[in-house]
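Below is how a single chain appears once it has passed through the pipeline. First comes the sequence as given, then the structure the pipeline wrote out for it. We keep one example in the README because the format questions we get most often are answered faster by looking than by reading.
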Amino acid sequence: MATVPTRDKYRSFLHDEPDNVQWRHGGPPSYDAVNQLFEEGQTKEWAEGSLEETVQNAIKSWEMELSHKVRLQDFKSINPEKFKLIVNGREGLSGEETLKIGSYNALLKNSLPKEFQYYKADEESFESSHEVFRSAFPRGFAWEVIDVYSGPPVIAFKFRHWGIFEGPFKGHAPTGEKVEFYGLGTVKVDESLKVEDVEIYYDPAELFAGLLKGPKMSDSKTETAHDTLISSQTQGCPFHN
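Resulting structure:
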């Protein structure tokens, strides 16, 4: 007898979508592993229906669409004509631009000289960037709202991201330790509560301090670890949530 997939209680626009929605991996993803990580490690448990829970789930839903829906026209969480993503004060990216490069590259782009970049977003594609972080965080990279400072139409919040570094990252061996960082964000929504722009501020050094802590691996060990992880990975996007 077939197993009925568990409905995701944190994300909208994932189940019961029309048949014409184009999914990046052929169908809706499973977030079971990262949901478990979230529930085991969350520091805040918001009341059902509260502003904090609503904001937390809305961001998770937006991230899910960005990572797994191929066409902007299938997004229900944003206003595609007005959407902008601004990270650490850089020039804003449109919805199409964000969808093209992916959330990792959008969040990790910087203007440092190449020799000082821990992660070279300009050299990564949507697919390769996701593979890098799926490798490092096989169980996913959980996300929670720590506080909400204002309600709609401009929502200001503090967040925390964390995961367990259990796979190689850019030639660095995993440490098995928790890697986490904190940040601040604002989300502007329209009268239908669709997102018009997102601004995120955080220190990437917090993330990379944990990822570069592992010793450098030889090429053969990196390939072996990478192949082992690929065989056990799911479609869920680990930078999320």
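The first helix runs from residue 32 to 41.

See the next section for the split statistics.
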